[in-house]
Amino acid sequence: MKLSCIAVDDESMGRKMLEENIRQVPFLELVRTCKNAFEAMEALQETKVDLMFLDIQMPGMLGTKFLQSLPEKPMVIFVTAYSNYAVESYDLDVIDYLMKPVSLERFTKSAFKALDEYRKRQALLYPASNPPLQTNTIEDQPDFFFVNVEYSIVKIPTKDITHIEGMKDYVKIYLANLKKPVLTKSTLKGIEEKLPPQGFMRVHKSYIVNLDKIESIRRNQIKIGDYEIPVGEGNLEELLKALNYSK
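and the corresponding structure tokens:
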């Protein structure tokens, strides 16, 4: 499933960032970029789109006024540098309100909100032909996420993660292709929420492991490469079940 979308921003840098973010999300398909509301109006007349990423402060017509003028509205996500339109945007029933600069992580989360809303609308239109709704399916789930590391934003491919260690206000993410772990300020729960729904398991209050990277288990210790990871009391049975192991 793909959502067709247009990006509307009067600044070339804003359009470029939207294009790059849209292309990173597997279920988004960029149809056109527009410099202002009038180009967007033309685009919507030529092609029906599911989603519009819309700037607000644009010459000629504000994004909020443009949206109000549309007889048939696609789903809309505002992307703006100004916070003072937030209240008005809720009255316009938009999907989300993103403040520039937008991280890919935040952009992706917003895109998933649009996908979920699209599925709900489709289910209402075609109840007999739609399966039960699922959010963030394996097919749609991105295979990466981003974390802050000192003064940089670092991409973490989930397939390369061997295990994750929680340390109070910090988390160490161990990757198969790196000698040293990636250290980021976060909680283990916060990182756990970024992981795909299958393939990872919290085996201890301080550890999450990639099930595919486990080499062996002995005396409540998981071996992955040179590391030994403890399995919490009561978690071993659940772990063996997840690994399809039976005595």
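(Above: one complete record from the training split.) Residues 144-242 form a domain with the OB fold (Dihydrolipoamide Acetyltransferase, E2P) fold (CATH 2.40.50.1020).
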